[in-house]
Predict the 3D structure of the following.
Amino acid sequence: MTTDTNRAAATPGLAPERQAQRQALTDVVRGEFKHELNVPYGAHPKQVLDIYHPKQVTAAPVLVFLHGGGFRNGAPGAQGYVGRGILEHGGMFVAMGYRLIPDAPYPDSCDDVELGLRWLSEHIAQRGGDPAHIYLSGSSAGASLTAAVALRPWSADPSLPTGLIKGVVLFSGRYNRTEDDVKVDNAGAARYVQNLTEAVDRTPPHSVLVSTVDESAFPDVPDNADAITAAIKAHGGSVERFVQEDADHFSGNRSLVEGSGAVFEAVRKMMQLA
């Protein structure tokens, strides 16, 4: 059992009690499942992975999760709780960190995700994961990152296999920044796309899109989810769209946490878990 030196940074809009609850739930998961913390995939301190192993590891499908935090805050250290359902059904769960503003303004953080995926494709088999079944997910800013990486061409590492990402799960992301460039900090970056819903270039075999009943933190999230769902379908992709009941922007992934419900069942089937 390893100790955590990567506690979550404060996330705007997330109350301290919720921060503490996430860490407590993650600590419980660590007590039940083997894990490796702060595994480096790059040179920057934020370029680390927390890897959680199912109890029976044999070519386990891998769900990679990108935390939220407005590209300025957050860390993988308190995200292990999100993977409980996946772990209980035989999947591997990886919480991926990435550089934050000001070190890497969005969308430069997408480069980190590509670097992390490269590491996983080359090393996860040594840990019992299946590099042929890697799925990418994220919440809030993490969902925006997931979509920007999975639905557009590789940028930082064009040699990555086109079909590396077998599916995506997007929780409460924002994909249209037409009215929000001031918060991006790097709109002039070569890979920046102002409105991803109009710039889908590729789709993985399957996608799961989730928003919640209460998106008061970002009221445009449901419209963004509808738009990116339509864009994926228009590009020929398979996609399921859900609204997570009894959840808000910061708890929209509760179906994964609980390992039950329509959203979890869609993810479980996508990953071909038991």
